[in-house]
Amino acid sequence: MKRTQNEKISQIKIETLVVGIDIGKEIHYARAFDYRGIELAKLLIFSNTAGGFELLDRWMQDICRQQGKTEVIAGFEPTGHYWFTLGDHLNRQGGRRRQNISYLEDSCEALHRYEKSASASKSGIK
Fold first, then answer.
1. pTM
2. What is the DSSP letter of 101?
3. Residues 110, 33: contact at Cβ < 8 Å?
4. What 3-state class would DSSP assign to 79?
């Protein structure tokens, strides 16, 4: 079922940690934001492996604990096939942890903000 933009936005509450992930073949990049789009942690670079996914899990848990967040929404664009293992991992983790972890099958605003900042950095725009 396709969700409207308003339905996606309404999932994000004060207690939600929004994680935008840029998917790559071997390396992924994650940024963490609150419901207002304020960045809560430094960029996480992790590999497309079980060890990389465990690093992402610990990183999200630490931020949730430090910031008092109880839910996590990880957003990424599912282009190509490199996201399959990460998407599967996040789905499995959502059922086994106290905090709710879900992922959006479309880019969330945080991911777009990250992509714009990465693009601006590459072109030298501030």
1. 0.72
2. E
3. yes
4. coil
Element (H, E) at 100: strand 100-104
- The answer to whether the beta carbons of residues 103 and 89 sit under 8 Å apart is no
- Across 23-75, where does the E strand assignment appear? 27-33, 44-47, 71-75
**What are the structure tokens assigned to 22, written together?**
């840029």
Give the architecture (CATH level 2) of 5-123: 2-Layer Sandwich (3.30)
CB neighbour class for 115 (10 Å; exposed up to 12, middle 13-18, buried from 19): middle
pLDDT digit string (tens) for 72-89?
988 887 778 888 899 889
Q: Residue 23 CA to chain centroid, in angstroms?
A: 10
DSSP count for the chain of H helices, then E strands: 4, 5
pLDDT tens column, 85-113: 998 898 888 744 434 455 554 434 444 55
Answer whether 55's CB lies under 8 Å from 41's CB: no
How far apart, in whole angstroms, are the C-alpha atoms of residue 87 and residue 65?
23
- The first and second tokens of residue 67, run together, are 């910031």
